[in-house]
Design goal:
The complex is a heterodimer of chains A (163) and B (284).
Chain A: E1 3-7, E2 10-14, H1 23-30, E3 49-52, E4 55-58, E5 71-73, H2 87-95, H3 104-117, H4 123-129, H5 141-162
Parallel strand pairs in A: 1-5
Antiparallel strand pairs in A: 1-2, 3-4, 3-5
Chain B: E1 2-4, H1 9-18, E2 23-25, H2 31-36, E3 44-47, E4 57-60, E5 63-67, H3 72-79, H4 84-91, H5 96-101, H6 104-110, H7 118-124, E6 127-132, E7 135-140, H8 141-144, E8 145-147, E9 150-151, E10 158-165, E11 171-176, E12 187-194, E13 199-205, H9 215-224, H10 235-248, H11 259-283
Parallel strand pairs in B: 1-3, 2-3
Antiparallel strand pairs in B: 4-5, 5-10, 6-7, 6-10, 8-9, 11-12, 12-13
Helix pairs in contact in B: 3-4, 9-10, 10-11
The chains are: A alpha+beta (163), B alpha+beta (284).
The complex binds flavin-adenine dinucleotide (FAD) and FE2/S2 (inorganic) cluster (FES) (2 copies).
One FE2/S2 (inorganic) cluster binds next to loops of chain A.
């Protein structure tokens, strides 16, 4: 089966797809985008989180064929350029929210989505929004710090842009 | 394995009829786990997500008609007013990622006794629209569940939609698990008060081979609530209601909890959800 989809703004094509394989497998093994991680393949850990048509989803639970014609953004597509990081990524680095880094790509997509929609999240809202992403290293405190930092910077930036 | 991607409902029905053993897939949050772990190798997948109309809801004769691929996230965002019980249950499903893809109809397709959609659908008296190339039929929700992961669908049938009566009084849902997110219910309970007819609907999850009503509890409560005075529920009535709900369950011991705990928890959830629902009625 041949698959056509848009990944990080670029049209992509992959051939000889087994229809039952996951979008995660397509991204990692067919398209050479190893950002999204495979840790459980059952929707529990969130390390494979990508945007599918602008909505965060576990790519391990999307059948390849279901992505035909759709728009995917992975962690590789968050930064504005080769040498720049997205503010959410910067905040993760600065806050020390990354240890082994395995959970980070999925958390970045989930956090990116949160900050896009809510620049003043309560702790309860952050916990709720990130409930589908497991981290075995950090104990989450630094991740919460990073999200608060990213949210406040985004808020300030939007305010400046507005005035 | 074939991958079929019908663009219309008619094509979906034909695909299902023409490929014996084909597995329909909506959000994929159950189907893909099976595939990823090699537990199931169906001859074909019938992807319903390209039939656009299925992602929407509409109102038909006072009932909300939820399409087969409408996600939990959309149910929460758009139907919390009309279907508060189902929206509450939807909020407890998995995680944001799971709710963005997972569907109430997929929950019915999986027919797990622990599925969170079942108690509110039972409590409100929902109807399942089953469709095939042979024609369509309505299945009453309590007749839909046949056993653990078994349901009243023929191999060539697909669920097109669920019809749920719009709110006719307070509704509540409660679920027990080990954390707030990402848990399969140890047990769960839904209640819907119909303040117009003065009837009560209930649904028990994860405490019998199938989701089920607590019929005696419904009748007892409808006959003993102070509907006119809107007084607080007398303690004895609440307690008896809890007992009758627990009596309707036939739980098992399993990894998530022992049967005795489930029975006890159900009576507590029944009393509490009743308390919350009745407060809403009294203050209305
Ligand atoms: C990490 C994780 C957490 C979860 N947490 C919860 C939870 O908290 N509560 C809960 O209830 N469930 C939970 N689930 C299970 C699952 O998300 C739900 O059962 C969900 O409702 C399934 O919907 P879906 O659209 O993804 O179904 P799919 O996986 O697409 O399908 C599920 C089943 O229904 C069948 N089916 C789908 N559509 C139709 C149709 N139109 N007609 C006939 N059959 C059909 C499929 O063939 C399959 O057998 C969880 C799953 C995961 C992976
Ligand atoms: S790999 Fe997809 S959720 Fe864990
Ligand atoms: S940093 Fe190691 S799992 Fe999160």
């Amino acid at each position: 089966m041949r698959l056509n989809l848009t990944v990080n703004g670029e049209p992509q094509q992959a051939d000889d797809i087994w229809p039952g394989e996951s979008l995660l497998y397509v991204l990692r093994e067919r398209l050479g985008l190893p950002g999204a991680k495979n840790a459980c393949e059952q929707g529990e850990c969130g390390s494979c989180t990508v945007y599918l048509d602008g909505v965060p989803a576990c790519s391990c639970l999307v059948a390849a064929g279901q992505a035909e014609g759709h728009d995917v953004v992975t962690v590789e597509g968050l930064a504005p350029g080769e040498d720049d990081l997205h503010p959410v990524q910067e905040a993760f680095v600065e806050a020390g929210a990354v240890q082994c880094g395995f959970c980070t790509p999925g958390l970045l997509v989930a956090a990116h989505n949160l900050v896009e929609h809510n620049q003043n999240p309560s702790d309860a809202e952050i916990r709720e929004e990130l409930a589908g992403n497991l981290c075995r290293c950090t104990g989450y405190e630094k991740i919460l710090d990073a999200v608060r930092l990213a949210a406040s910077r985004t808020r300030n930036r939007k305010q400046e842009a507005g005035t | 394995m074939e991958f079929l991607r019908p663009a219309t409902w008619r094509e979906a029905l034909e695909a299902q009829a023409n490929h014996p053993g084909a597995v329909p897939i909506a959000g994929g949050t159950d189907v893909m786990v099976e595939l990823n772990f090699g537990r199931n190798r169906p001859p074909a997948l019938v992807d319903l997500t390209a039939v656009d109309e299925l992602a929407e809801w509409s109102t038909v004769d006072g009932e909300i008609r939820i399409g087969a691929t409408m996600s939990y996230t959309k149910i929460i965002a758009e139907l919390a007013e009309e279907l508060p019980g189902l929206a509450m249950a939807a909020r407890t499903v998995g995680s944001p990622q799971i709710r963005n893809r997972g569907t109430a109809v997929g929950n019915l397709g999986a027919a797990s006794p622990a599925g969170d959609s079942h108690p509110p659908l039972l409590a409100t008296g929902a109807t399942v629209e089953a469709d095939s190339v042979r024609g369509s039929r309505d299945i009453r929700i309590e007749e839909f569940y046949l056993g653990v992961k078994r349901k009243a669908l023929e191999p060539d049938e697909l669920i097109r939609a669920i019809r749920v009566p719009a709110k006719r009084g307070p509704q509540q849902f409660s679920k027990i698990g080990t954390r707030n997110a990402m848990v399969i219910a140890v047990c769960s309970f839904g209640i819907a008060l119909n303040t117009l007819d003065r009837t009560v609907g209930t649904g028990i999850g994860s405490a019998a081979p199938t989701p089920r009503h607590a019929g005696d509890a419904e009748e007892f409560l409808a006959g003993n609530l102070p509907w006119d005075d809107r007084d607080p529920v007398p303690d004895g009535v609440a307690r008896r209601f809890g007992e009758l709900v627990a009596d309707a369950a036939v739980p098992i011991d399993d990894v998530r909890g022992p049967a005795r705990y489930r029975t006890h928890a159900l009576s507590v959830m029944a009393r509490r959800t009743l308390g919350w629902a009745w407060e809403e009625y009294r203050c209305a």
